[in-house]
Amino acid sequence: MKRKTPRAAAGFTLIELIVVMAIVALLASIAAPRYFQSLDRSKEVALRSSLATLRDAIDQFAADRGRYPDSLEELASARYVREVPEDPVAGRRDAWVELPPPPDAQLKGQLYDVRSGAAGRASDGRLYADW
User: Domain segments of the chain: what residues?
Assistant: First the structure.
């Protein structure tokens, strides 16, 4: 003899599924913008860290050798950095903008400072290229 199961135990109704999907969509719409903001902030922090590391390596090279390096690749080949880091905002290793020393600089060489080649503005409104 077959037992009849009550209707409530048979499964979810379409209305219940729609309500659950609406709640999930609402939570996702709240969380997604915060997630993307945190990704942008993490790229900015990584960019600041890479710039500080490269600038420190340039200064150490100049102090050790009495001249500025000619390129970022020279810094890497001389082991002042392991490798030229990727610009986290631009997403490329060749996006760095290498700045020459000022005309009145006492030390020779081609690389005095480095900036990001990424287009756009940071969360504080400044251009990435001005960091």
Answer: 21-130
Can you say whether the dihedral through the CA atoms of 37, 39, 45, 48 is positive or negative?
A: negative
What is the CB neighbour count within 10 angstroms for residue 96?
23
CA distance linking residue 119 with residue 116, whole number of Å: 8
Average pLDDT, the chain: 91
Element (H, E) at 40: helix 14-65
- Assess contact for 120 and 128: CB atoms under 8 A: yes
Angle at 114 between CA 85 and CA 94, to 5 degrees: 45
Residue 4 has pLDDT above 70, yes or no: no
3-class SS string, 74-108: HHHHCCCCCCCCCECCCCEHHHCEEECCCCCCCCC
Q: How many CB atoms lie within 10 A of CB 98?
A: 17
Distance between CA atoms of 52 and 60, rounded to whole angstroms?
Answer: 12
